[in-house]
Amino acid sequence: MAQIKLQNVEDYYEIGEVLGSGHFGQVRAVLERASGVRWAGKFLKLRRSASSRLGLERRSVEREVEILQSLQHANIMALRDVFESRAEMVLIVELISGGELFDFIAEKESLSEEEAIEFLKQILKGVGFMHTKKIAHFDLKPENIMLADKTMPHPHIKIIDFGLAHHLKQGEEYKSLSGTPQYIAPEVINYEPLSEAADMWSIGVITYILLSGLSPFQGDNDEETLKNIVGMIYEFEENYFNQTSIMAKDFIEKLLLKDPIERMTADECLVHPWIKPLTRKQAANRSRSSINIKSFKKFNAKRKWKMSYNMVWACNRLFRLQLQCKSRSQEDPELRQCESDQEDTETKPASLIRRRLSSSS
Ligand code: ATP
Q1: For a FRET experiment, which of 23, 103, 114, 242 has its CA 20 to 30 Å from that of 11?
Q2: 42 carries a ligand binding annotation
Q3: Dist. CA 40 → ligand 1 center (Å)
Q4: Which residue puts its alpha carbon closest to atom 10 of ligand 1?
Q5: Which atom of ligand 1 is found nearest the CA of 94?
Q6: Can you tell me the distance from the alpha carbon of 194 to that of 171, in angstroms, rounded to the nearest whole number?
Q7: Rounded to two decimals, what is the model's pTM?
Q8: Nearest-angstrom CA–CA distance, 252 and 207
Q9: How much distance in Å is there from the Cα of 236 to the middle of ligand 1?
Q10: Count of alpha carbons within 13 Å of 109, Cβ hemisphere only?
């Protein structure tokens, strides 16, 4: 494992604005004092004690660091430096300034399948690289697919958030109940041994959404979504897929297969005729077909709304936990800003909202 610095991160980097928030901390822009180069700093709160309900176990962050260190690829967020103190760990990573791929697409008036494939190819290359290293991401979803610089003519994909990623070792079984309901594979829900194929399922779901603006297994609540996944209940609704090529549907069908062994691998996806047409007719079909941009925009707007709602929910929960630990006079003003009068009902099955098993309590 790389040298983790025990010095204060602020001796090396000036801390800037908040770029995003996760379940266990914030991501902020940082400026390297020595070079003047801008990076992003992922500040992760550590558990103070084994009985604490707040923060991550140190080992869990160390695993994320080890994984990022072994993944140097153009389509994967690069790790630069790591700092550690008693209360937190700070991962200095490549600054990704282009925002989320889905937000970029939602701003467009139209997008052909051919253009969508250019992004998908990059996702497949990044994921394929991870898989050659026997690392599975286990949390592929639109929020974790970003763009390096959206002002470039052909923006570059960057895969982020390796908090649930796992190094799969030969002869070792790995099971986990973590993930995000809409995107998780049936074997995760069934608590069966996991492999890289779980990521390929998620890519199938992402592609389905990208083309139609519909989420294939989405139910009225998470329980229903999980039931639909396990029951393999999905279809290509004609209303939403009338602009989609037959090859695109074939591509999705070969990923949304219940048996993980049957699913295409990332390398197989890259040579599927939808991604790499063999004939002129196939190529022409692809450029004539387009994504359902109207429906996609709606999906994305709803997704963003849910993300901000969940963040308020998480902040409220954190705030209440803090109240249990501290007296009112010591309340954290930042957490108080997150309070809302939204009803705080937990609809997610307990096991699946816990993002990292080691962080559950
Ligand atoms: P989660 O709770 O979803 O697992 P997390 O705590 O692991 O989150 P990330 O998902 O890695 O944190 O980052 C949270 C948010 O910060 C992202 O959704 C993104 O908006 C932003 N972000 C993360 N990494 C970068 C980066 N390198 N450059 C710019 N913004 C970033």
Answers
A1: 23
A2: yes
A3: 9
A4: 161
A5: 27
A6: 12
A7: 0.87
A8: 7
A9: 32
A10: 0
Task: Count Cβ atoms below 10 Å from residue 239 Cβ, excluding itself.
Answer: 9
CA of 78 to the centre of ligand 1 (A): 13
Query: CB-side exposure of 194: number of CA atoms within 13 Å?
Result: 31
AA identity, residue 287: S
On whether the CB atoms of residues 123 and 75 are closer than 8 A, the answer is yes
What CA–CA distances, in Å, run from 312 to 25, 76, 179, 288, 340? 14, 29, 19, 42, 7
Whether 345 has a pLDDT exceeding 90, the answer reads no
Q: Which residue, by CA, sits nearest to atom 19 of ligand 1?
A: 20
Q: What is the pLDDT of residues 250-298, one digit of tens each?
A: 999 999 999 999 999 999 999 999 999 989 888 888 888 899 999 999 9
The pick from 63, 160, 310 for probing ligand 1's pocket by mutation, whose C-beta has the most ligand atoms within 8 angstroms, reads 160
Q: Is the pLDDT of residue 66 over 90?
A: yes
Look at residues 302, 290, 292, 303 and name the one whose alpha carbon lies nearest to residue 239. Answer: 292
Of the listed ranges 36-40, 47-51, 62-66, 212-216, the one predicted with least confidence:
47-51
Amino acid at 191: Y
- Coil, helix or strand for 76? strand
Q: Which residues pair with 44 in a beta bridge?
A: 25, 89
**Ligand 1, residues 19, 46, 96, 180: which to mutate, most atoms within 8 A of Cβ?**
19
Pocket test for ligand 1, best of 18, 77, 156, 161 (most atoms within 8 A of CB): 161
CA 264 to ligand 1 center in whole angstroms: 28
CB atoms within 10 A of CB 51: 7
CA distance 143 to 229: 20
Nearest atom, ligand 1, residue 93 CA: 27
Distance CA 360, CA 349 (A): 13
Please indicate whether residue 222 is annotated as part of the active site.
Answer: no
